[in-house]
Design a protein that fits this description.
The chain is an alpha/beta fold and 226 residues long. Helices cover 39% and strands 21% of the residues.
């Protein structure tokens, strides 16, 4: 079964080549030209696995669409496509729940690589044995604190999965950027710090004992709490 991608872009001359390129790659693509139409599709049963989201929509800002989709429980990948390339816009977009950010104009080959990276699943991860411990179900793409599910974005889940696969060991920043984003990522690594911060907040709020610890100048480690 092919992966489903939702393209949210109001300019047909930009959307058309995106749609054709993704369809040639074998994806099931849906195109809409407004935030309202996007949110209608980003509701249960959440058919789109990945959203390519333009910020400059005619009816509402793409960041509003991103935040609303996350608030409504959408857990698929969200990649922002925008002419805004300032770092502050990157941080705001990630805080709104986006997983990736691509500034216009961009090469279609770069877009394809980013799409594959977002859709790529992490490898097997051992689940915690204790009922109160962190449990990661890679096949279902879900995380639990005991019996309670912790809602994470695609990037947050992938980051946690990589850290959990090397539990109590330091994972370098370079490795995290390559495995969670893309080995050819050329953007600011601040995206990693922002995602780690969001992940920490969600794990702490859920009462998870494991902590994501920063090792200055090296990377991050997932370690057991006290």
């Amino acid at each position: 079964m092919s992966n489903s991608v939702l393209v949210v872009e109001d300019q047909e001359d930009i959307a058309a080549p995106l749609v054709r390129t993704l369809q040639r790659e074998g994806y099931d693509v849906t195109w809409v030209d407004s935030g309202k139409k996007a949110l209608e599709l980003l509701a249960p049963p959440y058919e789109a696995e990945l959203v390519l989201l333009d910020l400059g929509l005619p009816d509402m800002d793409g960041l509003e669409v991103c935040k609303a989709a996350r608030d409504n429980g959408y857990e698929g990948g969200i990649m922002i496509l925008t002419a805004r390339d300032a770092e502050i816009d990157l941080v705001v977009g990630l805080d709104a729940g986006a997983d990736d950010y691509l500034a216009k104009p961009f090469a279609l080959a770069v877009l394809q690589a980013r799409v594959r990276a977002l859709l790529r699943r992490s490898g097997p991860v051992e689940a915690g044995a204790d009922d109160d411990a962190l449990r990661i179900d890679v096949a279902a793409h879900r995380v639990y604190a005991g019996e309670r599910e912790v809602t994470l974005t695609g990037k947050e889940f992938a980051l946690l999965a990589v850290l959990a696969a090397s539990r109590d060991k330091v994972v370098s920043r370079d490795r995290l950027m390559a495995e969670v984003w893309d080995e050819n990522w050329y953007g600011s690594t601040k995206t990693l710090d922002v995602t780690v911060g969001r992940l920490r907040q969600k794990l702490e709020a859920a009462g998870v004992q494991e902590k994501v610890v920063a090792v200055r100048g090296v990377g991050f480690r997932l370690e057991a709490g006290e």
